[in-house]
Specification:
- By secondary structure, this protein is of the alpha/beta class.
- The protein folds into two domains: 183 residues, 3-Layer(aba) Sandwich (Rossmann fold); 34 residues.
- It contains eight helices and eight strands.
- It has an eight-stranded mixed β-sheet with strand order 3-2-1-4-5-6-7-8.
- The chain starts with a strand and ends with a helix.
């Protein structure tokens, strides 16, 4: 497998995913696809670079990353405006806003610019991978890899195959994520997947505890931190 990946979307989650791959030894192409002026794109990508540098510095400070690993990781990240040629990429992680139309249009264009065996993944937690895969040439190589924010810190990545996703694509993605130090968990195609559904349940119960006068917001927070981390 090639050691180059593309991350589509330089927003917060995209920046964090790019950093994770770079720390794992991969060359990363961080792509801005939004329709805006070249000057605005350059500003967005410069901001992405600054945030990645800041996050990496904090990881070094907290001894999560060795100091001598920081500079090489940054050198592995290339910012780009527009898809261009991504034929060298073995894995493409889409991290665009939650819009079915936007994602499908992107995957249609992407299919013309990547190799036939490149894996394509989406960060979506609200759109079925089967619906998104319809826009990918070779839907068997498509799945959802849902990273939780902050993606460079939280180990969990939910791996959700669509109806046509091949077993090889799933296994290759699980292996790749494990190599990055992540904890990939396979999940069936169900709205919200695993983590977000549990989070919503916990938040709803926390609100009910306060509404019913069982505890103050501060004590609910303290109990959660002390009892569940």
């Amino acid at each position: 497998m090639s050691e180059t990946v593309a991350v589509l979307g330089p927003g917060r989650i995209g920046r964090q995913i790019a950093l994770t791959f770079a720390l794992g030894g991969w060359r990363v192409v961080l792509v801005d696809l939004k329709d805006r002026s070249v000057a605005d794109s350059e500003l967005v990508l410069a901001d992405a670079r600054r945030e990645i540098v800041r996050d990496l510095a904090l990881m070094v400070e907290e001894q999560v990353v060795a100091g001598d690993a920081a500079a090489p990781a940054l050198e592995r990240i290339e910012e780009r405006v527009g898809l261009g040629d991504l034929g060298a990429c073995a894995f493409v992680q889409e991290a665009l806003p939650e819009s079915l139309e936007l994602k499908r249009a992107t995957f249609k264009l992407l299919s013309e610019r990547i190799s036939a065996d490149a894996i394509v993944a989406s960060t979506s937690s609200t759109i079925s991978p089967s619906h998104l895969a319809e826009a990918v040439a070779g839907p068997e190589r498509f799945l959802v890899a849902h990273w939780l924010n902050p993606a460079h810190i939280i180990p969990l990545v939910e791996v959700v195959p669509g109806r046509q996703t091949s077993a090889k694509t799933v296994e290759s993605t699980l292996t790749l994520l494990e190599r990055l130090g992540k904890t990939p968990v396979r999940c069936a195609d169900s709205p919200g997947f695993i983590g977000p559904r549990i989070q919503v349940l916990l938040m709803n119960e926390a609100v009910r505890l306060v509404e019913e006068g069982v505890a103050t917001p501060e004590d609910v927070d303290r109990a959660f931190r002390a009892g569940m981390g």
